[in-house]
Amino acid sequence: MGSTIIVWEKDGKERGRLKGHSKWVISLSWEPQHLSAQCVRLASSSKDCTVRIWNVGHMKVETVISVHTDTVSKVLWGGSGLLYSGSHDRSVKVWNDKGKLVKSLEGHAHWVNTLALSTEHLLRTGSFEYKNEEMSSPEERKKRAEKRYKTMLETIAPGATERLISGSDDFTMFLWDPQNAKKPVCRMTGHKQLIYHVAFSPNGLLVASASADKTVKVWSGLTGKYVATLRGHVGAVYQVAWSADSRLLMSGSKDSTVKVWDVKKMKLLYDLPGHSDEVFAVDWSPDGQKAASGSKDHILRFWRN
């Protein structure tokens, strides 16, 4: 891990380097496309206890946020324009895009390891719906992304806002409505060891959590109510990833396997061996056609759905 952020052009050439963090960078999050047609702002979090907001167009830092008192393990740029940071100081903090503290979400008894937003898949894909549609300008793409964002929230419930999940070393998670309240919607308990990762399904209706207790648990993304436990791994589960249609869930584990689960049946669908060491990262392509896994064995594997 390093303290420098390298920015790349889409053709694979290096655009430049962002320097300023004094310890390694842990998390990155782009400003959503529906908030900025040019998409030139990037947020980063670091072990140096800070969050930085960069302008990649000018390759300069705009804002340094130095309120956290320990490692900032995760930063997310939400669709409402707010930023969320989770820290080893046990807090989740909410900021505006100028770096001003809006509220602090308290409740965890140990490190906050992970955060997830109900709109995360949509924010990641922006205006792109994989229909080979040409959009002539950044402004046109911004309008399309804004329409998709509003449509998703309206589909969940009239007047719905994006929700936030935090997962901790204290074995618990909290479901938050951060735009409207400082108190959690629900405290989610059931894991017997620390929580490494949480992720909302692309439709925002479910949440999956990965834990050192060797299980993946599934919860309601609306209420936080427990739904099911997926068992099969024989080592800690480090990360989960949803398919674009929210039907399948992938998990990567210390046991060196990647598993794919049928969420409707809550059963194992595929066991994907091949890695020779711990699998730290899994991800699904936004169009749902391919998945990837990264391991301590220094190999990145691609899988076809």
Could you please describe the fold and organization of this structure?
With 305 residues, the protein is mostly beta strands. 8% of the residues lie in helices and 44% in strands. It has two helices and 25 strands. The strands form seven sheets. The chain has a four-stranded antiparallel beta sheet, with no helix packed on it. Strand 1 and strand 2 form a beta hairpin.
Give a quick set of tags describing it.
305 residues, mainly beta, 4-stranded antiparallel sheet, 25 strands
Fold topology:
Blueprint: E1 5-8, E2 14-18, E3 25-30, E4 41-46, E5 51-55, E6 60-65, E7 72-77, E8 83-87, E9 92-95, E10 101-105, E11 112-117, H1 120-125, H2 138-156, E12 164-168, E13 173-176, E14 186-188, E15 195-200, E16 206-211, E17 215-220, E18 226-231, E19 237-242, E20 248-253, E21 258-262, E22 267-272, E23 279-284, E24 290-295, E25 300-304
Antiparallel strand pairs: 1-2, 3-4, 4-5, 5-6, 7-8, 8-9, 9-10, 11-12, 12-13, 13-14, 15-16, 16-17, 17-18, 19-20, 20-21, 21-22, 23-24, 24-25
* Overall pLDDT confidence: 95
Strand content: 35-45%
Rg is 19 Å
Helix content: under 10%
Main sheet attributes: strand count, strand direction, barrel closure:
4 strands, antiparallel
- Give the number of DSSP strands: 25
Query: Whole-Å distance between the termini?
Result: 31 Å
The ordered H/E elements are EEEEEEEEEEEHHEEEEEEEEEEEEEE
Anisotropy-based shape: globular
Low-confidence stretches: none
Strand ordering within the main sheet: 3-4-5-6
Instruction: Specify the number of helices.
Output: 2
Structural class: mainly beta
